[in-house]
Protein 1
Amino acid sequence: MKKVITYGTYDLLHVGHINLLRRARELGDYLLVVLSSDEFNAIKNKKAYHSYEDRKIILESIRYVDKVIPEYTWEQKIKDVVDNDIDIFVMGDDWKGKFDFLKEYCEVVYLPRTEGISTTKIKEDLNLKKE
Ligand code: C2G
């Protein structure tokens, strides 16, 4: 079984997220998503609208996702890859090159981002339309 891993906040789920998850899953037979905890989001200077628990429930309901575990630190990726027998690490290409150190442990794939959509854009567009 070819196991794939990917990381993210996945707040205010949109087609960019789904396109990433679908393509990642299609590279193997199993997709593990390591979901940023609320505390780690603070480290990334992100404030998610949905709590970790809710973002986890939402991700677990997606057909492409087999398992969701928490992301607490930048440093946990090697352990996650080794402990979960991961074959392929996948991220959107906004991260291109940033995780090449994982090439010692698994294949590293950066997929093209979906243009024109982001959680930030959603928040900005909604704020502009505030009554
Ligand atoms: N993504 C995408 N297209 C978009 C928006 C996001 O392909 N229009 C991808 C990102 O490249 C990432 C995934 O969707 O691979 C999740 O995006 P975020 O939730 O923004 O994740 P991020 O904050 O980049 O977390 O340790 C790594 C970090 O946790 C990555």
Protein 2
Amino acid sequence: MPKITFIDPNGTHHDVDGTPGETLLDVARDHDIDIEGACEGAMSCSTCHVIVERKTFKNLPNPDEDEEDILDLAYGRKRTSRLACQITLSDDIDKLAVKVPTQFQ
Ligand code: FES
């Protein structure tokens, strides 16, 4: 079962379990993590932007070109930025740590 750590802008860590087949956005919502996800995964808003910690970034497949295009719209994009709605958990992802950016940095 994938172990997920969400890190709030204030540094608070939330350690939760994910289920293969769920998206990271689903997991965030299940645990009241403050990630908006306004377009419900239609990949048209970038409000589900998260910054994956470098040590766990390698556990993910690369984003596709469409995700890259939307990430270009995300405020404060970093090299390890991803859209939470586009990360589907699997047994290949044993752990993941992501920072939840503030809306206005
Ligand atoms: Fe809109 Fe992810 S929920 S891009």
